[in-house]
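ok so I'm stuck.
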Amino acid sequence: MDPLQSPSPMAVAILVAGGTGTRAKQAASTAGSSGQIDLPKQFQPLGGKPILRWSLEAFSRDLRFGAIVVVCAPEMRDRVLACAGSIQIQLADAGQTRTQSVASGLQAAAAIGGSFCFIHDAARPGLSQSVLDHLFLVLEAGADGAAPGLPMADALWVAPDGLVQQAQARDGLVRIQTPQAFQSKIIQAAYAALPADQVPLDDVAVAKAYGANVRVVAGSPRLDKITWPEDFDRMTRLLAPQLLPRIGSGFDAHRFAEGTFVTLCGVEVPHSHRLAGHSDADVAWHCLADAIYGALSAGDIGKHFPPTDPQWRGAASSIFLAHAGEMVRAAGGSINHIDLTIICERPKIGPHREAMVQKTANLLGLRETQVSVKATTTEGMGFTGRAEGIAAQATATILLPADFGTALT
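replied:
not stuck anymore, here's the structure
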């Protein structure tokens, strides 16, 4: 059976995202990073989306995972949820050390159930389906645990204080990566038995100290951990060399009707009128959805949500925009930037612009710096100048695999 179509979820993914990323915060690289040096590395952009999002998508595509637990600092919860978008996750609080953070994630996983636990570092974005499949095969064959690893290819020397002194044989040595996968009961018991004063190398070390047998499966350079600033450029070349930009544009207009507010970017703006339409008439999100559909060569909003269908009467436009965003992700791509202009004489957009940016970014799982919301008037000309309604236009820049060539349906 195709693992992506498994009818019975059997594993819990634990994504450890509690680190501060001190060594990588300065990673203002040319490989998709915007240089937000105040952000921990798991939230830095890579190939058009946050590093954390890469692993979230990899786990969410495999239906053998019944739940995804993200371990993060409490003050980062909103940012984690923004990265997840429509991907369902559970949150657990990070500890002072990685060991404490994993223990917190395991506690949340125990309440969920599941035969296996996969523990993965959020700073390793290159998780592939092949690695997941190999880990599942080893666990299902009866091993207590399994981890991806790469054999050592370089000569190894012991060099204290930078002075080469002694060679180290490399035969049989491997670099262990994550996710490290275990029978749930074994890794939970291993962490429960771990002395409080011990600082293990990783989860494999905890399992081995408990007496578990752990096997190695083939790892990948794509799974290397992002640690240093230069890692952003290298990992981008490994993960997304095939992603190419696509640009779409959208335009929409709605007339005024009797009411007390207009909905723009999901924000209710007080006004003497509302906007008329089959749905909630959010003209801003309508044109933005059309821009994303356009970049996908996927038609327009009416194709996916026909105005003749009564189920969409009065519907929130967040449904339409979220659908457009999901289509990008389903195509293996990501939204890089959106630029929205609202055209009206009134109401005034400025006081509400920040809320509009925030709501749009949260809905699409973007950083606020990836969202531009502007407003202009037509100097009293045309239907917007006569205050008969509101128009909006948008441009969406997305990244899609180079072999993407057919419109999605």
